[in-house]
Amino acid sequence: MFSIQNFTVESLAQQFGTPLYVYDGNKIEAQISTMREAFAGTNLKIKYACKALTNINIMKLMRKNGVDIDVVSIQEAHLAILAGYEPNQIQYTPSGVAFSEVQEAVTMGLRMNLDSLPLLEKFGQTYGNTFPICLRINPHIMEGGTLKISTGHKDSKFGISIEQANEIYDIVQKYDLQVVGLHQHTGSDFKNAHVIIEAAEKLFGLAFQYFPNLEFIDLGSGFKVAYREDDHVTDMEKLGKGVVKVFNDFCQQYGKDVQLWFEPGKFLVSECGYLLTSATVVKHNPARNFVGVDSGLNHLIRPMMYDAYHEILNGSNPDGTEKEKYDIVGYICETDTLGKDRDLPVVHEGDIIVIKNAGAYGFSMASNYNSRFRPAEVMIYNGNAQLIRKRETMEDILKNQVVVEV
Ligand SMILES: *Cc1c(COP(=O)(O)O)cnc(C)c1O
């Protein structure tokens, strides 16, 4: 039987029901340590990109481990405050939001990361040099697993183009803006670690030329984790060695011990998460065998949206030697494949089917499509399994519906 820490998936399913998201808090701590070790020798700050998994208890765990937060909306910032963060530990990196939301963020005291020239201009007009800011630069580097998750190339909506450095500088001069940070984020799942160094060097160039008062350089994220056994992953240790060297050289030339920031989402929480489902039907059709489960693209959209591969196990019988090839499909009324052509130990109705790497962009992208309830969430930490979100009920589905005479 497959276990998470020392809980079998069947005992978890029995206690909390399925579909169920389960997170291993100690795995998150191990990932944090891996990063700290890889970048030892720099003034490292980790900012958890919380959009990957926004349960407040996960944020509390990050805070306990000295990890700050990167948010992309005001609502995430409010969650971070509820998790115990001080506003100045929260970096706000919105993309193209209304200026009223930026004003709200300033009022809350968040650290601002600005991503367009018009926004920079408005910010200058409104606040002058009263607040420290960071600039999100688009370094024009094509990376990331697929175009859908790449953000640092020249056709991406994100950031201010590095080719507009002069325009940035004009606005900074005009309003005497306090630029304390430069940021770039090339997108998720970069394959070649060298892109981070290439991007860093572009930011160093800007720093030398235009920004003498930086407190930090934020190199974003995009670290790749293993989604299958032989997957290419970011070798943190090797990446760390490369980055530490160029970064320390930069600090020396710059004449200041600048902080090195990263904002990982996936790296910290992807592998900690499991989506536990129950096999509701096993169907032997002439062309294919299907395992239907009590979940689907409403709970985990990555396979259908990004063609993402998630490893799937028969948690009730992970080591069975008698195997069959199955498509694992959801219960949503449209094509809803979670995994294709998977060799699994023979599946029986009621078996617990486990989908791995479900921590990042799993629950946080879940919906009520087909008017299904979103799953419950459980965190296992130091040997305790605790419910950290209740399963939804019909009340949640109806909560904001206004019933009128028709
Ligand atoms: C989504 C996001 C991240 C996290 O990306 P991962 O691939 O999950 O590590 C980091 N920074 C910003 C600005 C983001 O929008």
How would you describe this protein?
This protein is an alpha/beta fold and 406 residues long. It has two domains: 3-21 and 270-398, Lyase, Ornithine Decarboxylase, Chain A, domain 1; 25-269, Alanine racemase (TIM Barrel, Alpha-Beta Barrel). Helices cover 30% and strands 25% of the residues. The chain has twelve helices and 20 strands. Helix 6 links the parallel strand 7 and strand 8. The relative contact order is 0.16. The model has no long low-confidence stretch (mean pLDDT 94). The site of pyridoxal-5'-phosphate (PLP) has 18 residues, from helix 10. Residues 49, 51-52, 70, 72, 93, 185, 188, 220-223, 263-267, 360 line the site of pyridoxal-5'-phosphate (PLP).
Topology:
Layout: E1 3-4, E2 7-8, H1 9-16, E3 20-24, H2 25-38, E4 44-49, H3 56-64, E5 68-71, H4 74-82, E6 90-92, H5 99-108, E7 111-114, H6 117-127, E8 132-138, E9 160-161, H7 165-175, E10 178-183, H8 194-210, E11 216-218, H9 236-254, E12 259-262, H10 266-269, E13 273-284, E14 289-293, H11 302-306, E15 312-314, E16 323-329, E17 337-345, E18 352-356, E19 376-381, E20 384-389, H12 394-398
